[in-house]
Specification:
The complex is a heterodimer of chains A (476) and B (191). By secondary structure, chain A is mostly helical. Chain A has helices spanning 23-35, 43-69, 84-108, 118-139, 165-198, 202-211, 219-252, 264-290, 299-330, 333-344, 348-360, 368-371, 374-401, 416-439, 445-458, 464-475, and strands spanning 2-5, 8-11. In chain A, β1 (2-5) and β2 (8-11) form a beta hairpin. In chain B, α4 packs antiparallel against α5 (112-134). Classes of the chains: A mainly alpha (476), B alpha+beta (191).
Amino acid sequence: MAVVTGKRPFVETNRVIGPGQSFGKIDDTVLTPVLLGVQQTPRWWWIGFGISLAFLAMYLVSIVVLITNGIGIFGNNIPVAWAMPIINFVWWIGIGHAGTLISAALLLFRQPWRTTINRFAEAMTIFAVVCAGLYPILHLGRPWVFYWLLPYPNTFGLFPQFRSPLDWDLFAIGTYASVSVLFWFIGLIPDLASLRDRAPTPFQRMLYSVLCLGWTGSAKEWQRYQRAYLLLAALSFPLVLSVHSTIAMDFAVAQLPGWNNTIMPPYFVAGAVFAGFAMVLILAVPLRRAFGLENLITMRHLDNSAKLMLATGMIVVYGYLIEIFIAWYSGVEFERYMIFNRLFGPHAQFFWALILCNFVAIQPLWFRRVRQSPLALFVISVIVSIGMWLERFVIIVVSLTRDFLPSSWGDYISTFWDWALYIGSLGLFSTLFFLFIRLLPSIATAETKETAHHYEHEKVDPFEDVRERYYAEVNA
Amino acid sequence: MSTLSVGQAREAGTAAGGLYGVVAQFGTVEDVLHAAERVRAAGYTRTDAYTPFPIEGLDEALGMQPTRLGWVVLGAGLLGGLGGFFMQWWANTQYYPLVIGGKPFNSWPNWIVIMYECTILAAAFTAGLFMIFRNGMPRAYHPIFNTPGFENATRDKFYVCIRSDDPRFDLRQTTAFLASLGPERVVEVEA
């Protein structure tokens, strides 16, 4: 239902929750697809799940080849000792950050539009962290002794090197992964209880009864629940910032030109949120269509996510410029050469492709019409995801190929298994995501009902009055 | 509005046993908030309300004490942070002192990140587990589930329960009192 005046169509779905939503209707929209029997599973789900499984198989084959042959199957070697495994690790973990930011930061800032997108964004976070976390473990060479990284009393009499950012990483990512799962599960409890009460078969009822831990929804339970949820949000928000700052310090603490920058932590965090919102949009656009969630994940959500993507994208672009400026301003010839090499060296095409993806491609987002076109957002988000991968490639590989002494320069060529493991990890992610949307509600129904209630009674949306007046004028 | 006796509730397929309490079902948020205030004003103390989503002020309307969860989480976070510091201090100065990068053994600025992560880890898990265990979860059985139609407590209905162990509880009077609050129905619920 669009009211068209001049250039800008004013669409009715510019609201946090579409019109005419009752508590029961929200339940039906979200929970019915989850409770369908195996026979009624939509065809698109089987097709998507099947393709994902094929890529997951490729991932598992790659891991078997990796473990039997060792990390020599990857292209990284001296001087480029860090390459695809680290690029992909940083890429995946960055994608995860938008989920936590949506669920934690937007909760703390009391943004009502978070409620319908936080659940699947948190799921995205967890699955992205799974994909990310496996990379350093697989890259260890002997992944079966990964527990040597943990501080535990052992017969070697050794502890991890607590002064190293790589060890900080272990703590940061371990905490991030476990707290994200906890936050997600706590948020799921009331919805699992809803599924229990709506389950048509005894098996489903038993499954969701166990998972919801016997939630009754009493006022005392809600009181503790809300306090716990708020505190988890307050704890998760700085946690996200610390995780990517720590990852940035893996680079910034090193002496290598191109890595040794004080701007790295904030610039990495912005890049992570940028990539994360791109992935949120990549998932939200098909999801809302497939499940008919247009009234819950509205244009408002897409529009706001696009705005955040644009804002964080421009911070990242500022980071690129500051890196160039500081290289010149420092007067250090190695820093200056690094930038020259990045912009005009043998791998310059990656840098310019990155500028195209992360700077040029997001400029259309200044326009409302683009921000409200799901197809355009989807395409731009895919481009941004590629751009963020290129950014890590440029920082990690291009900096390593030419460091200080020309005699120690080298080149990097990726191998088949580099790509098989990476594309396979996309299969792992999408397999988990397909299972999630089939077995768990992808929208937090209890929170959405609360928002719907507030919306109805307190006009949470500050522009709602303006819009209503506008409609009244247009209709008059 | 209809009132179900224990006998009718038993026919409706609920469990046998003593009386758990009387439950009134409401259709709107305003009704249940109003009812909760009236229940408290009438002097009932062993009460609870069941809602599909958190309702602001419902715990206060029923006269519930604020939760202590925040203080427990604060303590756990501090303990976690101190534990993180102590682990690193002990490993680097007592257990296996090793000169790394010419830094002093007790180079605490290097330990801030891990201290911080330990703080968050301890605080977050305390918040989550405190909520779960103090709420009596995981639980296999709760008498309130014997309320006919209680599956709507996670959908779009709101319930107020006055337990039979309340000092002011009297089956006839309490049922009549709840019925006077404008509920959709009042039910006696077995334990």
